[in-house]
TrEMBL record:
Protein's recorded name: Ester cyclase
Taxonomy, superkingdom: Bacteria
SUPFAM superfamilies given in the database record: NTF2-like
Database matches in Pfam families: SnoaL
InterPro entries xref list: Cyclase_SnoaL-like, NTF2-like_dom_sf
Naturally occurring in which organism (per UniProt): Streptomyces hygroscopicus
Length: 135
């Protein structure tokens, strides 16, 4: 698959997430998919993403940096959002936060087979912790 085709596929995947079309994820993601070394069925992966969207209803995946090479994609995704419920164990404050995710994907046959994701939890913690010096 050409890099431009894979870039279009990846952008389609993020559009699917932003539009909350979780049932359509099988168009973009293998079943099963490996996420941070955990093998998940497509249903488990959909549930993971649904949980994030429930905890942060205005969650929007915005590409900040994107590199496509062969069957691999690397992306820095920026989130500017307002958690409405506890997110990754941190209580919401009602105020907006900003954080990034660095994520790498390996594609197979035009669909995501493996995902390695690192979310800047320290930035989230700093913004959601009352009395933090940056508050």
């Amino acid at each position: 698959m050409a890099d431009l085709d894979l870039e279009d596929r990846y952008r389609g995947y993020l559009m699917c997430l932003n539009e909350r079309r979780f049932p359509d994820l099988s168009e973009f993601v293998h079943n099963p998919v490996v996420h941070n070394d955990r093998t998940l069925s497509i249903t488990e992966f959909q549930d993971l993403l649904r949980r994030d969207a429930a905890e942060i209803p205005d969650l929007h995946y915005a590409i900040e940096r994107l590199v496509v090479q062969g069957e691999q994609v690397a992306c820095r995704i920026r989130f500017d959002c307002t958690p409405a419920a506890s997110f990754r164990g941190i209580a919401p404050t009602g105020r907006p936060i900003s954080f990034v995710e660095h994520v790498f994907y390996r594609y197979r046959d035009g669909r995501i087979a493996e995902i390695w994701s690192l979310i800047d939890m320290e930035a989230i913690r700093e913004q959601l912790t009352p009395g933090h010096p940056d508050r």
